[in-house]
Amino acid sequence: MGSERRPRIKENGGGRPKRYNNAPLTYEFRLQAIRFFEASQMQKTLERFYPDTQGKSRDIKCKLIYLWVKNKAKIERGGSVHTTRAMRKLRKAGTATVLSQETELQLVEWITDYRAEVSPVSAVLLYIKALKFAEVIDISSSDFTASWTWRLGFLKRHGLRFRARTRQGQNSREESAQAVEDLNDKRKEEMHRLGVDVVHNANQTPACFEHARKLTPSIVLKTNPSNIPEMRKQNCEHRYGFGKHLWKEIRRLQDECKMQTYGNKTGWWNAGLSVVWLDYNFNDRIHPDCLVLLLWDDFSSHWTDEVKAHAKTLKAHLFKVPGGHTSVCQPVDIAETLD
């Protein structure tokens, strides 16, 4: 005869339901209570934020608000920032199990070398590689999980970012060949229509180089802008975004390598650099009144209203290469003359 269990009288097994009386509140709630208390008095603050408390519970909430006022500086730091105001506890960086600074620098070096081969680094790839680096230094995957919050912090600490994946997809050889043929036909028609006899090809590779025969190549480097507005303006106007001390070294390397060097916070080509590049290559040409045709790929910073208007003042007609076909429509950097 099997043993029978005693039937439950209550659904929760007879235990008391959780009341969550000591649940911590968000920093945004604490900061609101502090500001309301400073603008009025304690009784009104209790009525506003704890209307249902009485007796001993009311005294406890009163002491709690006084404690918040005492720690006002910390609560203001947490409650006034969008990323932390919904938090209930703040932890210093490095409280959890994380990679050491030396290991993170090795991971940054790996990303740099990987990108130097024109290979993109995705969030999944960073996740897998971070776990491998942790395994090398005897940190188990249960202690260090390379969570998305760690990845965001890692990218922010080292000034890195992931590029958005394009939606163009992969084109077949037949589509690429047809794109080249169509581009050549349209280019010749445009040259005859405008009366242009010179075409420049400016091709931007994934390494952020701008090339064209008889035009100086250029590269974009990452540099922090000056915190002083006047100095930042001078750096952009006279030193291509670099500080006056760093510019001495950049200028020497620029002359040695015969390459224009630009700098900005992201290390990425933008509309402002497109305007500077057009000025450098077309503003002082031998025949400034003669219209030229410039082949440019479908990069967003090449086709802003500011860039198109500036190219028009330089008598440089921009001709767009269809998206997804840059590798076949601009295989080499040429300066072509129409027969």
Description:
This protein has 339 residues and is α/β, with parallel strands linked by helices. It has 3 domains: 53 residues, no CATH class; 57 residues, Arc Repressor Mutant, subunit A (Orthogonal Bundle), CATH 1.10.10; 162 residues, no CATH class. Helix content is 46%, strand content 11%. The protein contains 13 helices and 7 strands. Helix 1 packs across helix 4 and helix 11 packs parallel to helix 12. The C terminus is likely disordered.
Helix content: 40-55%
Strand content: 5-15%
Kindly report the average pLDDT value: 79
Q: Can you write the helix and strand succession as a string?
A: HHHHHHHHEEEHHEHEHEHE
User: Could you list the spans in which at least 5 consecutive residues all have pLDDT below 50?
Assistant: 204-213, 332-339
Overview features:
single chain; 339 residues; alpha/beta; Arc Repressor Mutant, subunit A; 46% helix; 11% strand
Short note summarizing the structure:
With 339 residues, the protein is of the alpha/beta class. The protein contains 13 helices and seven strands. 46% of the residues lie in helices and 11% in strands.
Helix-strand blueprint:
Layout: H1 27-39, H2 42-49, H3 56-70, H4 72-79, H5 101-116, H6 123-136, H7 148-157, H8 173-194, E1 198-204, E2 210-212, E3 215-222, H9 229-238, H10 244-257, E4 260-264, H11 271-282, E5 292-296, H12 305-313, E6 316-320, H13 326-329, E7 335-337
Parallel strand pairs: 1-5, 3-4, 5-6
Antiparallel strand pairs: 1-2, 1-7, 2-3
Helix pairs in contact: 1-4, 11-12
